[in-house]
Amino acid sequence: MHRVDPDTKVEDEPKFIAFYSKLLGLFSLFCFLCRKGKPKITVNRSGTMAVFTQTCKECGRSFQWRSQPLVLGKYPAGNILLSFGILMAGASVSRVLLVLKHMGLAVFSLRTYFLHQKKFLFPVVLHYWEEYRGKLLDQLKGIPGAVWSGDGRFDSMGHSAKYGTYTMFSCDLMKIVHFDILQVSSILVICIPHLNPALAKMIYSLLLIW
Ligand SMILES: [Zn+2]
């Protein structure tokens, strides 16, 4: 395995699957504070993180060890990273959690995953997209006569006739620069010949952020 720098970010450092018996064997050896005796071990977990506590009769102190670093002061990094991985892969969360349960791996609940999505993942994805889009728009400001393509679709990808997805594509950058989900009935009729009213509204919303 290649060398890992001490300042490597938690998301980049390697992770392993550790068995209960192997960890218990390690923590049963001696008290990690006074290096004597046979400490009493209690094991707890928080989602995918194990928490081992040694209670020592010799020195009367207890030593606690967590199998994961904490992020934002209290959240086990492995729990957040597992939710992140599932979302980024576009995988079915219930299937992934079932796979892990089948092999006996400690995991969090479906409810926790949706909490992670709402609290951490969606805000981060939105922030990244807005920054990325800002950079694309800055690039486009330097291109005179920028050429755009746009399209809208509804009543597909979920069969909703109420909402439509509208996309603006920059032919200069060869990238999607803006998209929006709009309620079809709220779209204004803009009288430009051969221009889809929904698309016209989309162009208007693009101009607002530009
Ligand atoms: Zn001790």
* Sheet of most strands: 3 strands, antiparallel
Report the count of strand segments. Answer: 8
Helix-strand pattern: HEEEEEHHHEEEH
Report the average pLDDT across residues. Answer: 88
Total helices: the number is 5
The level of helicity is 25-40%
Structural class label:
alpha+beta
Low-confidence region ranges: 188-193
Question: Could you give the topology of this structure?
Answer:
Elements: H1 20-27, E1 40-46, E2 49-55, E3 62-66, E4 70-71, E5 75-76, H2 77-89, H3 93-102, H4 110-141, E6 148-154, E7 163-170, E8 175-183, H5 197-209
Antiparallel strand pairs: 1-2, 2-3, 4-5, 6-7, 7-8
Helix pairs in contact: 2-4
Structure commentary:
This protein has 210 residues and is α+β, with helices and mostly antiparallel strands. Among the domains are: 70 residues, no CATH class; 64 residues, no CATH class. The strands form three sheets. It has a three-stranded antiparallel β-sheet, with no helix packed on it. Strands 6-7-8 form a three-stranded antiparallel β-sheet. A hairpin with a 2-residue loop joins strand 1 and strand 2. Helix 2 crosses helix 4. The longest helix has 32 residues. The chain starts with 19 loop residues before the first helix and ends with a helix. About 3% of the residues have low confidence. Zinc ion (ZN) binds next to loops. The site of zinc ion (ZN) has 8 residues, from loops.
